[in-house]
Amino acid sequence: MGIDRRGFFKVLGVTGVALATGNELNASPGESNPAEFKGILYDSTRCVGCRSCEYSCAEENQLPAPPDDIKGIRKTDEVCRTVVNEYQTSKGPMYLKTQCMHCNEPACAAACLTQAMYKTKEGPVIWRGEKCMGCRYCMVSCPFDIPKFEYHSPNPKIQKCTMCFENRVKDGKIPACVENCGNEALMFGTRRELIREARKRIVENPDTYVDQIYGEHEAGGTSFLYLSGVPFEELGLKTTLQKTSYPAMTKTFLYSVPTVFVVVPALLLGIHKATKNNINLQEHDDEK
Amino acid sequence: MTMRSDIPLAMDQEPKSTWKFFLKELKPKGKIFTPFNIISVPIILLGIVLIAIRFWKGIGSITNLSQDVPWGLWIGFDVVTGVAFAGGAYVITFMVYILNLHKYHSIVRVTVLNGFLAYVFYAGALLLDLGRPWNVVNPIIGNSFGTSSVLFLVAWHFLLYMIAQLIEFSPAIAEWLGAKRIRKILSGMTVAAVIFGITLSMLHQSGLGALYLMARDKIHPLWYSEFIPILFFISSIFAGLSMVIFEGSISHKVFFSQISEKNHHAQNGIILGLSKICAGTLFVYFFLQLLVFIHDKNWSLINTPMGYWFLLEIFGFVLIPMILFFHSYRTSNILLIRIASIITIVGVILNRLNVTVIGFKWDMPVHYVPSWMEIVVTLTVLFAEIWIFRWVINRMPVLRDSPKWVNENQ
């Protein structure tokens, strides 16, 4: 037996489709250098919990103003892209700002099947409504649980911090929260500058800071970085996250797809031809 | 044989009579007030009202989904579990067209039809769960290809596999319409569609598991491992075949009159053969689960409520049906095989829900429980599928034999 012309074209066709649909399996954004991503450094030892970042964020993004009297630990939601919470720590009350971490290799962007969640070459991770299907796979994938969905709207949007990319960062301006931070707890710059600055602060004030920058390695590195005077878990940050990128976890699976598409159809066709011949032989024997 | 162009086609003879034929076929056949109709019609009507509310007021108006649990019953059960049960189609077509096991030929069409309808309706259920369904074409056409997404792969595969299954099933449609030449062309495409379909199935059955790879910190460690894709693929084999056994035993009662004497007698032999395969794949699955468990060193988690739940799933719904399948195959006990298939079906539902819903954010203070409205919509999708299934069975040669001209022509 051998592959006849028709069989050959079948395999060729199947392989062609596979290669056409299975290429460009890139799980990391372009050729951008993570060190040059724009980012924000948040120093919780300087934060006094005034929440002016919350107010300016709501104003900048046309969201309802945050409530004045707050209690308990709050989370970001579909009308609020950033919150500042107070934690009782070993060094007394401390504050922590929560928002999108703008990962170097964001799980949400790798999860998005329409590139609606998108890592810009400047660094901020943005959401593009005209592409989004509203499948919420970004919410399933994000290790920080940041994307929020408008469940009570017939035309729902995903809400999350965009580092003010559209109105500010794209034009070289700084994000609203950083601009309005009264106590210089927030600092805007490239990731390289921010990490250098953070290290400098740790070295100059070793008693004030714990010797770690949260976000330098978490989830493969993030563009939002934290400094703290107490261990990060006391401030409600997830310290058990892996230090490598999340999209890397699906790479093995995705890279196997083209191989499967080339090998399996050929194998199946081979088995089909082989077993078909067996039946013909049997029938032939029966006729004798 | 040579192609004869002068074979008359029922379709292009008289346009008027074709139209009449369609109208006649659209009308219901058989009794109207059956127990199934009496139960399903009110639920479907209620479901349609709920779906209208969902599109008017948003997904949150009828579901209990939250910012913490973005995927609930509609994804975890309708899509992830439903697709596993539709796996019977690729396994049976593999056995019949690739391994040329002709013994199973009589159940190919009904299994493929079941698989095709399952995909159509579960993809439909997916649309209900999309917040912005008008953008659903974005991953298929346009410049918005998220090629690094597992969901992108799954979406494409759903679409392509539906087309492949339609081609696999299309000879039955041609026989129904009496389109002889078209039938010949379509049945010539079967093997290609089968090969393509099996490859697609392998990838998206495992792909549904791979969807959860990035949710490592959110799924209970007893259900999360880097081997989820392989576990999902293996379990789709016995999930699909158990569904074939279960669904076949119902069809054989409900559509008794349609099944020929010969196929009726062949049924038991088919069930015994499938039982052997179920036992084998359940064993492989059990062994893999054991390896994953030892590999991940999850011993300390066993003595917790979730641990007992895990043990129940693995021993009660994998090991026990495996033994039942094996034993009843040895003793040719058809009833016991049917019981084993039901236990396996429950076990697969448990497993998929454990990964997608029960074990997802298991440590949260407030757990997601689907609202009654989510359940009604799920039942609506299920019943609507059964309605279409019954409509097709009553008209096309799926369970009954093909019209005589099919064999005469060959």
Short note summarizing the structure:
Chain A is an alpha+beta fold and 288 residues long. Chain A has helices spanning 5-22, 52-60, 107-111, 137-141, 176-179, 191-204, 248-287; strands spanning 38-43, 83-89, 92-98, 117-119, 125-127, 148-149, 158-159, 186-190, 224-227.
Map the helices and strands:
The complex is a heterodimer of chains A (288) and B (410).
Chain A: H1 5-22, E1 38-43, H2 52-60, E2 83-89, E3 92-98, H3 107-111, E4 117-119, E5 125-127, H4 137-141, E6 148-149, E7 158-159, H5 176-179, E8 186-190, H6 191-204, E9 224-227, H7 248-287
Helix pairs in contact in A: 1-7
Chain B: H1 10-13, H2 15-26, H3 35-57, H4 73-85, H5 88-98, H6 108-129, H7 150-177, H8 180-188, H9 190-210, H10 228-254, H11 261-296, H12 299-302, H13 305-331, H14 334-358, H15 372-393, H16 404-409
For the record, the count of structural domains of chain A works out to: 2
Q: What string, H for helix and E for strand, traces the elements of chain B in order?
A: HHHHHHHHHHHHHHHH
Q: Fraction of residues of chain B in helices? A: over 70%
Number of helices of chain B: 16
Oligomer: heterodimer
Rg of chain B, rounded, reads: 22 Å
What fraction of the residues of chain B are assigned to beta strands by DSSP? under 5%
CATH evolutionary superfamily of chain B: Formate dehydrogenase/DMSO reductase domain
The main β sheet of chain B shows up as:
none
Helix residue percentage of chain A: 25-40%
The CATH architecture of chain B can be named as Up-down Bundle
What is the string of helix and strand elements of chain A? HEHEEHEEHEEHEHEH
Number of strands of chain B: 0
Count of individual domains of chain B: 1
Helix/strand-derived category of chain A reads alpha+beta
Strand order of the largest sheet of chain A: 8-1-9
Instruction: Give the number of DSSP strands of chain A.
Output: 9
CATH class value of the largest domain in chain A: Alpha Beta
Which class of chain B in CATH terms?
Answer: Mainly Alpha
**Radius of gyration over C-alpha positions of chain A, nearest whole angstrom:** 26 Å
